[in-house]
Amino acid sequence: MKSKVYSIVTFALYAINLIFAQDPPPLPDAPTQGPINGLFFLVIGGALVAMKRYFGNSK
Amino acid sequence: MEIANRLNQNPFIGFLLRALSFYLIWQIIYDLILHPDGRLDEFLSLSVIYISKIVLTFLGWTVHTYERIIWIEGTQGLEIVNGCNALKLMVLYSGFIICFGNEFKEKLRFLVIGIAMIYLLNAIRIILFNLAILYFKQYWDIFHEFSPFLFFYPFILWLWYKWTLVGIKNHDIRSFYGSSLS
């Protein structure tokens, strides 16, 4: 009988814990600054430089 | 044969294809080998921090470092993550030099000088970041956002432009590619 009460109490505690478990505290946001940006513009610039040489200087 | 003829007619497309292949191969090597290994990124980040610390200490500031974080006493830290160590820029720069032109010795010279200069500019950038946090913290976001346009891009574009002028011995670029592809 005693062990049955212990089992019920243990299960009840476990169930209550499970039901009322809180979400973990929010993690910090990602840093506002990322790595070196604007590489796209550099790529476009490089393509233009190459184009100038290929098309601007061909006779 | 058809592809060769098309490239012959339009060497610019050939250059784009070579560049694309170069960056794809690089990305695969980086993702599969260099990034998991981590030593290259680690070296670039830590050495830049080391140089920045030496310079700032020499100029009179009290500087602390912890792994990849550097800070002047009394300010928040600045972390040099993988994306901030200029490796991508070095590869981007190298890709253009390797894929364009045929002058091997000059190519090597441009590669060494260019990569060294990008590394040095990144060290200067990190030094100025630390000073910006110390003195102009309210403008930090703007400074960080536009720093590549200030430090790297004009220099790299200038070097690329110079390379297009000296990288190909044969001044008639179309005839060079025409002869090499046919």
Features:
heterodimer, A: 59 residues, mainly alpha, 2 helices, 63% helix, rod-shaped, B: 182 residues, three-stranded antiparallel β-sheet, 8 helices, elongated, disordered C terminus
What does this structure look like?
The complex is a heterodimer of chains A (59) and B (182). Chain A has 59 residues and is an all-alpha fold. Chain A has helices at 2-20, 39-56. Chain A contains 2 helices and no strands. The longest helix of chain A is centred in the N-terminal third of the chain and has 19 residues, at 2-20. Chain A is rod-shaped, with a radius of gyration of 33 Å. Chain B has one domain. Chain B is 74% helix and 5% strand. A 3-stranded antiparallel beta sheet of chain B has the order 1-2-3. The chains are: A mainly alpha (59), B mainly alpha (182). The interface between A and B is medium-sized, with 25 and 32 residues.
What portion of the residues of chain A fall into strands of 2 or more residues? under 5%
> Could you estimate the helical fraction of the residues of chain A in percent?
55-70%
Count of DSSP-assigned helices of chain B: 8
- Mean pLDDT of chain A, nearest integer? 78
SSE order and pairing:
The complex is a heterodimer of chains A (59) and B (182).
Chain A lengths: L1 H19 L18 H18 L3
Chain B lengths: L1 H8 L1 H27 L1 H20 L4 E4 L2 E4 L5 E2 L7 H13 L4 H32 L4 H12 L1 H14 L6 H9 L1
Antiparallel strand pairs in B: 1-2, 2-3
Helix pairs in contact in B: 1-2, 1-8, 2-4, 3-5, 4-5, 5-6, 5-7
Kindly summarize this structure in a few lines.
The complex is a heterodimer of chains A (59) and B (182). Chain A has 59 residues and is mainly α.
